[in-house]
Specification:
This protein is mainly alpha-helical and about 140 residues long. It has seven helices and two strands. It has a domain at about 20-50 and about 90-140. It has a two-stranded antiparallel sheet with strand order 1-2. Helix 1 packs antiparallel against helix 2 (about 35-50) and helix 1 crosses helix 7 (about 110-120).
Length: about 140
């Protein structure tokens, strides 16, 4: 038996595309570190996460929606494709530019919440309610 790899290289970000909150957190972490282009790329992946193609590819053999014969499964894919038509994925429905910060507020640490706020406002500063209940402004690195 061989040993499992360890360290950051062994933990690729967002291995589970259904863990949308982790994708949103990755956007905040990348942006707060000045890695703007990578943050934008992750935001796009978040918006597309669990779209029609992603759901279909989870079924055995990467079956496409047109080949699915089970009425229940077909209905699920039909509903997902309808609700995701404008955004490309469930991630886009759950994490819009308008509601993403409200969605994570009081669940994420203040600095991470502020980083997401800064990313969405394309600013080097973001605001969030601190542990003391007061609104705080946090500064982040300029674009690199």
């Amino acid at each position: 038996m061989h040993a499992a790899p360890t360290g950051p290289a062994a933990w690729p970000p967002c291995r589970d595309p259904a863990f949308l909150d982790a994708r949103a957190a990755l956007v905040a972490f990348l942006y707060s570190g000045g890695r703007v282009a990578e943050a934008e790329g992750e935001w796009t992946r978040l918006q597309d996460a669990l779209g029609e193609r992603a759901v279909a590819s989870r079924w055995r053999g990467g079956v496409t929606p047109g080949l699915i014969t089970s009425s229940g499964l077909f209905h699920t894919l039909l509903v997902l494709s309808c609700c995701c038509a404008l955004t490309g994925g469930v991630g886009g429905e759950l994490y819009t530019r308008e509601n993403a910060v409200a969605r994570v507020r009081n669940r994420w640490p203040p600095r991470a919440t502020a980083a997401l706020d800064a990313f969405l406002r394309v600013s080097t500063e973001g605001t969030a309610v601190g542990y003391d209940g007061q609104l705080h402004t946090y500064s982040f690195r300029a674009q690199s």
